[in-house]
Amino acid sequence: MLSDEKLALQILSGDIAAFEELMNRYKRSIFTIAYRMMGNYHEAEDISQEVFVTVYNKLYQYDSTKKFGPWIHRIAVNTCISTLRKRNRVVSISFDETYVPANELDLHDLYEDPQVLIEQQELQAEIEEALLELPESYRMVLILRYQLDLKNQEIAEIIGVSRENVDVKIHRARKALRKILLQRWHEGGLKNELPAL
Amino acid sequence: MNCQHYREMMFADFETELSPTDQNDLLQHLQTCESCRRHYDLTLRENEVLMDTSNIPAIDAGFNRKVLAQLQAASTNGQTLPRRRSRHLPAYSKAVAAAVLLLACLYVPGILPRLQDDRSIEQTAMVDHSQPSQKSLHNVRAGSEPTQAVEMGLSEQKPDESVSESSSQVNRESPQYPNHDEVNGAKNADTGTVLKAKHDTAEQTPELFMQTAAEPLAPHDGQGVEQSKGMEASRSLISSLRSLGTPVKPSINNTPAGFVLVETREINEVQTEYHFTDPNREKSFVIKLSPADAAAAGSIPAQEAEMYNDKETMNADMASIAVMPNEASKIMEYNGLSYQLQITSAVFTQEELAAILTTIHLDSPAPSLQP
């Protein structure tokens, strides 16, 4: 299998099949970033398309001696953040859109205690909502770290900071997420009350 | 260590980011502290949610096709497609080379005056006013010929001034497509008026004019090997200037009312795309102007013409995948050369595009962008 870097060179020679191969390799991770950042399917798809159009048009700027992954993910990160800033709005996620295809539901969920299941689902929804309240830079590092399962060094290459800086950002992002959750629970008087962090 | 410290430790990856000592300390603390245990449970739950990708919808199966269609649309609208940085010299490189050679002739004593001795060059300089593409070559030859200038009724003009005029003109003029007025001047006026016009131009740039005019010419008494070197350099100069003779591109006139030219894109030295749109930018079409036979139409060698065709290969690949816009084409004559006009649009039908082509005619000068 050709490396990403060789595929990029082939694209510059006019090989559209190579571009499609790169799309197949990266569209899922690009879409994941966009979906988690934007909070809905259609915007995520638009941004993902925009990312690949940008990649195609700016490919001549890519230094093929470096890894392709961080380069394309950096374009995705910048596209998401610039889109959010242009729209100057708070992202709100509609959970009607966050559907889970029926075939992906675990059957054993149906046999668990309904009360426990509901509580777990509520907790998951609360955490997801809290994630969307995070500042975009915090949300981005958490997406790259946990959704894409990237190492902190890889994240550092994508966002252009040192690995130590990424360590700090992730730690602060986790603390900020916890703070939002606790604040929500204290305000709502919910059952999951925990001492202040 | 207090609870706050343990709660911060929980955010680290338990196995990879915590030392064995820290792991043991944390586990022992969790056995004794109910509050921290609840924090730890929440941390684990957060980890699960953060890593969960199961609720991310599948991407549309037609995703790749949509991206390619966008790229095709951008290509049709004249946006740049990725391309390697040109391995070829830019179009103005020939003019720069000619200017350097000319300056060398001016500053190296004994080269330029010997142009007078080259009878064949002098004779060549007297012919062919009808080809605008020969203007640069013609002016330089005439200007570098002091005795010739005297014969043409410019006796008040000092020989070194006429040389300076020609050099400043060559330095500033467009390497490929000379100004239309100057071209017409070369075509319609006699040699004397052309020289006068160049004199006026030189007066508008006094610094350059004075700099070259103040440079004394070498005495006209060189002989033997030195004379041979001078002849060789002169031929080199003439050869370089001859390469400037690219035909003037015609303009596209009589386009449909209301449509304005918004972008001119030079695909290469001989092919140009003109992008027209209506004021509301709802309808647009692109006209690609190219010589019917690139190798025969311009001064470019056939090998270069093939190179230009190679540049379009990727567009052809894109077109075979994405939706093709409508197009029509027509061969038209201008200045004794055949040009192909290819019109493309995503909004006009093929019949409408053919109708537009019937009204268009080629003329000079080259069109300029509308504000």
What does this structure look like?
Chain A is mostly helical and 197 residues long. Chain A folds into two domains: 4-87, Orthogonal Bundle (Rna Polymerase Sigma Factor, Chain: A); 102-131 and 133-191, Winged helix-like DNA-binding domain superfamily/Winged helix DNA-binding domain (Arc Repressor Mutant, subunit A), CATH 1.10.10. Chain A has helices spanning 4-12, 16-38, 41-58, 68-87, 114-133, 136-147, 152-159, 163-188. In chain A, helix 3 (41-58) crosses helix 4 and helix 6 (136-147) crosses helix 8. The radius of gyration of chain A is 19 Å and the shape is elongated. Mean pLDDT of chain A is 82; it is low at 90-111. Chain B starts with a helix and ends in an 8-residue tail after the last strand. Chain B is of the alpha+beta class and 371 residues long. Chain B has 17 helices and seven strands. In chain B, helix 9 (159-172) crosses helix 11 (191-204) and helix 9 crosses helix 12. In chain B, a hairpin with a 5-residue loop joins strand 2 and strand 3. In chain B, the strands form two sheets. In chain B, strands 2-3-4-6-5 form a five-stranded antiparallel sheet. A two-stranded antiparallel ribbon of chain B has the order 1-7. At the A-B interface, helix 2, helix 3, helix 5, helix 6 and helix 8 of A face helix 1, helix 3, helix 4 and helix 16 of B.
